Amino acid sequence: MLENMTLKSVSDEIINSHSQQGLACENKEFIQYVIDLINKTPRSDRSMTKAELQSIKKTITTIPTGKQRHLLRAVDNVLFYLHQHCAWQLPEPELKRFHDTQLAWMQLISLQAHDASALYQAYQKYKPIFVQDRPEPNIGFIALALSIEVAPLSLRYWAEVLNEPASIELFDNQLTLVVQHQTPAARHPQQPSYFTRYALTPFSCRLLINYFNSEPDKITLKTLHHALDQWLSRAPFYLASRNVAQWQHCFQQIWLVQYQFPCALLLDISQPHRHVAFVPQRPHPQYEQHIKQIYDQDWVAPAYHTFAAKKVERWPHLALINAIKNKPSSQWQHLLNTHFSTPPPRSHDNIIANVMYYFTYDLIQFGGVRATSLQLDSIRKYTRIYHQLKDYPLSYIEACDHEALMDWATEVYDHFDKDSERWLVYNFLRFLPQVPVTEHFDISQFSSPLLSATVDPFCLSADQCLVTIEALVSQSTGSPLQRLFCATALILGFYGALRRGEVSRLRCQDIIGDVDNPHKFTLCICKTAEGNTKNKQKRFVYLSLPAAIAKLIRIVIHNKRGCLPTTPLLGFNNESMTSRQLHYLLPVTKALKSLWGTNVRFHHLRHSGAHWLMQQGLQLALALTQSPLPLGKATAAMLTEHRCRERFDFWLEGRPFSHVNGGLLFDVIGDQLGHSHYATTRWSYLHGIEWLTPLFSINDNGYKQSELRYLLGIGPLSNDVSRFLNAIAPDYRQATTHQKQNYTLMLTALELTPHLLKKKGFKQLKSVTPQQTSVSEPNNENHLLSLWLAHCNDDIVLTDSQQPTARRYNYQSKELLRSLNTDKQAFSALSEFWALSGRHQPIIFTKQQRQALQQLGPMDFDFDTHTLSFTVRCNKDNGIYFQRVFRNPLFKCCQFDFALQHNRKTRINKNKVLIDKYFATNKDTVSIHKLNTGSTQLNITVRFIPQAPLLFQMLHDFLNASLRNT
Is residue 756 part of a domain? Predict the structure, then answer.
């Protein structure tokens, strides 16, 4: 969308992107001509069909001059940019042409082969001299060291890094370098500033620390380029000057040959804009309280079909604005904490006022996309669209439905004509994914496909996933089956890397357990009656799960073995898609936000699954027995050689990785994710790059004592290095004096880092991550099952938490859960009872209802016919007692028969009126029998509809217990 936005800067960005790679590109006038041709076709998606491309080329070939050649080359330039930078899907023949472009890039790199080899050997010889002599830091040498030890970036990026002392960060116990994306010429005005992370070696980190401590002057690209030329022109390098692109090609050749980086990954580490990192958030300050509320219904739901959108009558965000109006910004946070700690209640018929409140709250607390603090006028400007939103209500149910939500957003967006107004709407719509109920909103449909794609980066570890599963199954709120389905949704989203809709639509027939391995499952992701896959293609996903997690999945499959194959795996039989999203996906989102940060969404489970799938594949390709990264215990267990092989066994089929075509790895991973191209996986799901370079043996020669002294910041001849080695190296303590003098510490950079973080210089580095979550995978496969059952109740009568005098009917007791395991038809019968008795609404029996039940007198239960019967006098009081007890959701699963035993000597009209008014409805059966003698009585028979003896027995027990607790 954004049809009125100017896109003149796109051509500049295309030329600039080619220039940075040293690739040829046509002039701006030819590039702009092609962009105008593409932009003539209205589009909201990022794709081009073969017919559209042929039409563009046909238009160009009508030009009867040599300009045609330039324009056809410009088409290649533009499409290459759209594919690489804007995530466009292009016709397959055009993608094959990109191999020629990549080949041209590789040829430019290979031209530097001789000098790159000489440069690498000279660097290895000079580095020991540097750490021993310790000359003043030279930006030319620093750029050289960073390009060889960190990544072969363009000097443009290194100039920016050397101007930013805060670029060194400690991320998950790893030394990293933050590299900001260079602002593209073509971008949406509200697109956030992205950055990525690279892994720092200890040497490069110490080099940067010393450089920044010297408080250097700002440098420019020209200054850095000149310094590098000068530095490498002397001994021991003796290299001729080069332009910026040629130096990068030279360093890329080192990474290609010396470190054995594949071409695709070499391009990834060479261009920071190809991946986006994220800042981990800390848990909610009151997460222990919030996690207890994840199953609470924060909406009023008499019935789903009654959710009709209504206009907002009250806008609570105005109270926020009024509260800060006359206060200095330094007091705003205190005001939020003291006066607005509890958000306003959410209205089920229109959630927009509630969303606007959260939007305003975040603007006050965190500022805008670029400014960390906003002026009051700016906050008013960003929120003033609430006047127009009054006419566009959004109900809770519509917000849960992806298509309905997108239609609502499109209608709102199209209401505005001016770019300035659409800019404000776009900014508000971008906030919707931060709200649990609208987290599935897709903002990409509201930005031009010709602009670089946006991404919402985040990744969870397997440890965090396990902690979340335990939180989901162990809450005392939420029914047992709801908690089990929520945990299943999380498992499928994380380990299967499924989209939100794919999790919701997965049917019983779409998941098959491996008969030989209980930890493995095959998922069929395909079109169902409820919707299709994003790319309209069927795919198979192969899972290998930890034993305790696999046990939960097998329980769900086993419980639903008697259901129709087309029944959704999550939820009860015939439960609507909306209901399943509300009750099995929304609590997962709430749990993720409570535990890992408010920006975390359900879709980030897919991001995480894709990230770890890629790491598993790369470890197989690189023949690593375990991950070298500092990971939590559960994540490290997922990355063992055995688990990696098990995950890819569908492809390997028992063969070693060396016996398959390793060049297909990215395609195999893409097939698992439903991606046609690696570019989609890389940009949208593989966040940061600090995890990649440690997988390759960049420095496996160990650390000599001279380098250790440099890293520790002690003198070149200091014997304090012995104290350090004695503390961390047992073999050093046992060595002879002569052996100690020539000792080399054989640790990797990641193994050495924890010891360095205790030393001067390193220990001052700021950590951007909370304490790493690390939990062991349960040894007992029944661990999660036992945890789930431990929070299920044996009792069918529970005290309601909201009304102490009321009793809640806990029909999902442990006894019923055991019946699901033994009775094939039990789940279908339970589903029938659930559907008839209020669905997810709790069944409450108040004190007044229990007293009314007692007033109705004794009841007879017939366990053969599943009926209960009792006899009362036909009067108003008994009619009121009957209504109070039996017009409860619990008894919607019953049929009522009324038999009036009428004495023929009394008038019948009065009794008919009483029955019609207080007892029977038009769905009930009423019969009248005349008596010659005896008093008039009303016999009532309640017939239990579901064919489930256990549920009827539980109903009997519940009513009897209610009578005892009156």
Answer: no
